[in-house]
Amino acid sequence: MATPILSPMTFTPDEIADVVGIYASNPEYCRAAGEYDPEHIEPGRVEADLREEARSEGSHVLLARDGEGRTVGLVCLLDRHPRDGYPWIGLLMVSGDQRRLGVGRMLVRAVEERFLGQGRDGLRLAVLESNSPASAFWRSLGWQEIDRRLDVQFQRPCIVMHKELTRPRIAWVPTG
Q1: Hey, which of 46, 87, 91, 98 would disulfide with 76, CB 3.0 to 4.6 Å?
Q2: Of residues 36 and 119, which shows the higher confidence score?
Q3: Interior CA angle at 53 toward 11 and 67, to 5°?
């Protein structure tokens, strides 16, 4: 699969339906986060929550689409956290039928490249302590725990993770 294309969400009814489908296809996350009942996700509430997110200064709500235009993920970014000045990934969720296919890794790399291109040297996120598969995913990509604290909105225990952003080094081997 080619790297999915990230583009700003425009909040069309089809996009809202796609995002509701992404949440519904990740019931374990919904249960751990406690924000949405995975059996009855209200499209209006999802839309309101994401519109509020998108209105925040420096926030971006992005959809990830595959080469055929299908929505395969949702990414929420913050350009500069008010406390530490780092960019943050607020949410990265892959459609359940796309999990374990490398889509999440490709999305993370696209986000890292986005901030590298802006001259940023680090990126942060918070993972719910109760979401051990997500913690393992981020650790496998080189992210390191730097703190534990409650999230601001819902007071859930979280692991704050950080990754230094660097360009891969290409080894030069002389020939001949």
Answers
A1: 91
A2: 119
A3: 45
Residue 14 confidence (pLDDT):
97
Backbone angles phi, psi at 130, to 5 degrees: -80, -5
As a whole number of angstroms, the distance between CA 97 and CA 154 comes to 28
Alpha helices in the chain (DSSP H): 13-24, 27-33, 43-55, 103-117, 132-140
> How wide is the angle at C-alpha 139 spanned by C-alphas 99 and 63, nearest 5°?
40
pLDDT by residue (tens digit) across 61-83? 999 999 899 999 999 999 999 88
| Sheet order of strands, 5-8 included | 5-8, 59-65, 71-78, 88-94, 122-128, 157-164, 144-150
Nearest to 30 by CA among 133, 132, 131: 131
For 32-54, the DSSP string reads: HH-SS-TTS--HHHHHHHHHHHH
- CA-nearest of 7, 26, 8 to 93 is 26
How far apart are alpha carbons 70 and 89 in whole angstroms? Answer: 22
